[in-house]
Amino acid sequence: MREIRVLIATAWRVDRRLTLAMIAEPFGNTLVLMSGLWLAMLTNGVIQQDTRQVVIGVAALVLGAGLGWQLDLSASQWRMVLGEKVAHAFDTEIARLSAELPTLEHFERAEYQDQLELLRQRQGQLGNSMSALAVTVKAICAGLTVLILLVIAHPAMLALVLLALPALLITKAQQRWRATAEDSSALPGRTARHLRTIAQDRDAAVEIRLFGLADNLERRIDALWNEQRRPVEHAERKVALASLAQQVLYVIGVIVAVGFVLYQAIQGQSAPGDVVLAIYLSQQVQTAVIWPIQAVTGFGRTLHTVSRFLWLVDNARAATGSLPAPEQIVDGIRLENVSFRYPGTQKWVLRNVDLTIPAGGVLAVVGENGAGKTTLVKLLTRMYEPTEGRITVDGVDIADLDVEAWRERLAAAFQDFARFEFTLQQAVGVGDLPHLDDTGRVRTAITRSNADVLEQDAQLGTSWGGTDLSTGQWQRLALARGLMRTNPLVRFFDEPTASLDAFTEDALFDSMARATDGANGMITILVTHRFSTVRSADRVVVLADGGVAELGTHRELLDRDGRYARLYRSQADAFAD
Predict the structure, then answer these.
(1) Any idea where the ABC transporter domain is (predicted)?
(2) pTM more than 0.70
(3) Is the pLDDT of residue 374 over 70?
C-alpha cells in the first residue's frame, strides 16, 4: 500500500486533472464489454420479431459501445501523457536522492550497488507505473463485469473460470522466476555498465589506446551482457511454456462450455441470444480471470521497482541527528576512541584514535599513503560514521547533529575533485550556493587560490564549446570552491594541491593557514603527504598503523627525532637531490 500511495501521490502532484481523468478508462471498457448483452437482446428481438428488443439492442450497441470506445481511447492517450510526467518526476527524484544519500557507505557495499543497478535497469517501469495501475483497475472492473454476464448467460459458464484459475499459480511462479533472474543478472549488468563507462571515459582513453584494450573491453562487455541475459532468457522460456500449457487447457474448456449452451438452445431450454452471449463471453473469460491476474502481476513488478525507489528514499533519510549545528566552536573537536573500517572489509583503517583539535587552530595531518588521513576527513564531514567510538564538537556528538546543517558549516577542497563544466563563475560559486551569483565573492576566492585562468563568464569544458583546463587549473578551481564559504566552522584541505609543484603548494598552504579567522573558533585541517608544507600549522598529527603516532608542533616533532623527523628529512633529502 505504501508503494501505491507513492504512485498516486506522485501522479496527483504532477497533474491532478489527468489523474482524475484516469477513471474514465475502466468505465469506458466496462461499457464496451456490455456489448455482448446487447447483442443477445438484438438476436432475441430479431428471432422473436420483438421490435422493442431490437430498438433497445441497437441503441445500446451504438451509444454504449461508441461512448465506451471513445472513453477508452481518450483515457489511454491521457494515460500516456501522465506517464511521461510521472516518469520525469521519478527520474528527477532518483537523481536528487542519489546525490543526497547522507554518506558514501553505499559506494563500498556490493549489495547497495546491486540494488542501485536494479533500480537503474527498471527505472523505465516507474514511468509506466500509472499505466500499470490504470490497467490493473481496468482489468479488475472488466473481470467483475464478465463474471456477472456469465451468470446471465448460464451459470454453467462459470466452469470456464475454474479452467482459468491455474493461471494464478502459473503467474505466481512466473513472477518468482523473473525476480530470481533479475537478482542473478544484477552483478554482471553492473559490471558491463562500468566497463562501458570506462570505454567512453576521456581520462581512460589514452591508456585504452596505448595498451590496446579496446578489443579486450569489447569482449568482456559482450561476455557480461550474455551472462546478464542468460538467466532472464531461461526464465522467459519457462514462462512461455507454462503459459502455452494453460492456454491449451482453456481452449478445450471453451469448446465444451459453448457446446453445452448450444445444446440447451436446441432443446429449447435457453434463448438463442444466450448462445450469442456465450460465444461472446467465451472470448472474454480470459478478461475475467487471466487478464486481472496478469495485470496484478505486472503491477506487482512495478510495485517491486517502486519498493527499490523507496529503499533509496529510506537510505537517503538514514542519517541520524536532528540538532542544529553550532554557531561557533568554543573548545574544539574531540575523537574519543574512534575506530573505523570500510563496509564489507575486516581491516581497521583507524583503531582506538583519541585526538583533540582545539578551536581556532590549524592542524596538519601527515602520514604515509594508507595511514588514514583522508578517512579522518571523511569521518569529520560525516561521509562515514565511526565503526566504534564517537566524534564530538564542544562535547556534542556530531552524529546527533543534522547532517545537512553540519555540512553547511564546513568548507573543503579535495585531491579527488569534481570538474564542473559550468561557467567559471558557477564552477567556483557552487562552493557556497547562496552566493552562487556573487561575482565579488567568487573573484575573492579565485584570487586567494590563484585560479585566475579565464574570465568569470567563460564556459568550461570542450563538450559545451568551452575551454578545457589542465589538471592543475581544475584543481585550483576546486580550491577556490573550498574558499567560497567565508565563515565555516571547519575548513578541510585534503591534498588539494597534489597537481601543483611543491613551492606553489607551500605558498598556498601558508596563505590558507594564515587566513584562519578565530572569531567563531574556526578550525583549519591541512592534509598532505608533503611534510615541507606543514610548518605553518599550530599542531601536526602523524598517523601510522591506524592510530596517532606523534602529535606536536613542527619544531617539537623535529626535536623529538621520531617518525615525523625521519620522514621530513627523507623528503627534504629527496627534494635536494
Answers:
(1) 333-570
(2) no
(3) yes
